[in-house]
Amino acid sequence: MPKHRSTKKTPEKTSPSLIRTSLIWGLNLFLLASVFIFSYIAFIYLRMPSLDAILHETRPASVIFLDSTGNEIRSANRIMGTPVSVETLPPHVWQAIIAIEDKRFFKHGPIDIRGISRAFFSNITKGRIAAGGSTITQQTAKNIFLSREKKISRKVQELILSYWLENRFTKNQILDLYMNRVSLVGGLRGIDAASRTMFQKPATELTVGQAAQIAAMLKAPTTYSPLRNPEKNIARARIILQEMVRQGYITLNTARIAAQSLSPATPTADTNMYRYWTDFVMDELKSRIGTFESDMYVHTTLDTNLQDHIATTIPDYVGKSQGAVIAMTPDGALRAMSGGTDYQLSQFNRVTAPRQPGSAFKPVVYLVALENGMTPDSYVNDSPFAIGDYNPKNYNEHYYGDITLATAFAKSVNSVPIKLTEMYGIDSVLNMAGRLGVGTKLRREYSTVLGASEMSLLDLTNIYAVIWNNGESVHPYSITKITDMSGNIIYKRNPSEPIVILQPETVKNMQILLSDVLKTGGTGGRARTTGVLGGKTGTSNENRDAWFIGATPDLVIGVWVGNDDFTPMDSKITGGTIPAEIFKSIIQN
Predict the structure, then answer these.
(1) pTM value?
(2) CA 186/CA 294 separation, integer angstroms
(3) Nearest to 434, CA basis, from 457, 414, 409, 462
């Protein structure tokens, strides 16, 4: 019988040439992929910012304003706190950060493979992004160099920068960079800025509990803010304290005590009441030293207690109008300044704004008369009087006839200073104003005698300061010295020898006139209180401006009330009403 052939096929052998071809194609694909990846990384690297430039980034120099006792009142251009480091901080501050953000920071390299794997499986298990694997080095790279855009290119840059940072800096230095650059609150950067904002203390003074509360914000500053969400902040701070115990940074007992101390943060006190002051000081700072590029402390003459009282007093009296107050020592040290009722609503400083002083200018005229031999007891005549077309009238058109110079001044009659100006010449009045520091700003006309030429509250108050400074020249100042952050002196006030402006007899008689204003029948009676030496009222035409300038043994205080649009106030508002009452309230504080 014929043999049947088997139908089973023998497997064909793979051709060696096919294997070689596949290997070659695979190798080519690998090389192409490698070239692509390398080129992409190189492209990203070339587009990276200048590392050294950003590490030494330029920023506006910060200015820290200090009051007369050396306490900080406000800062300008301050986007970062005082630099801190692992060496300068209490260990528990940086340990709280390590415990919650990157517990293996000192053991891994630029990236933490174990941490990434743990986060990956945790996220898979929970079905959501519940954990991250970024190291502190990666976060530092992101905080310092990169935007917050969620792109692959940014992540590649982050990895490159992480390796660069780890090769250039020690672990402690990287942690220092992180602590000083991380954004935590209100656009400010660094844990010291957060500490000062949240707890009104530098990071070097943080307790264990407060350090945990600062570290709690690192995950999400707004969500875990002890100001906005104190409950979430405290809950996360407790977790951090537990982690610090597990990692051996603190004892269980220390953690329990710290947990009991956790509480909502107190916001930094509102510094708007100092803003008119610091704006003014900033202008003086620039005039003293010009441009500046380094951080500095500016030691000022401000009395914060007086400033606080003045800033809160003005709104209680002026209603819908505006008000301003300047307080200075007789020798010119500015102690308080409030340029309006609310800095947030209006940054316009009314202390330096020109307005008509009204009768508050009259002491200039009376000083001329006193220098020419008149005394408070000299008689003058108060009656209707005109010079050409200029025919000013007394308030309520009431005239007193023959009266003493003291009475004329105390009742602020208008005819007498006009007659005195005609007697001694308008140039003598303008020259006196010039000696007192305001002559170049005045118009050469008789209406100036009754306060029609505008001047600022600061300039007007300075006239009175000369009188209460025994007739010696006064140059208002707000800065005593400027230092760098290390305490080196950049500028120190070196006052020149005062110039005698008024002779002792003239000063004595002028002070008598000013004191009589507060006596019965004087226009400044409402300002009378213990310790007041004297003062003067002033009211411009149609009650557009109301003034009171008064003095105590320590201070000369100027008060102005009016409307910004120059519209008249209520006819009952004069220098002897609201301004005098504000002055009295300040003195009685």
Answers:
(1) 0.75
(2) 23
(3) 462
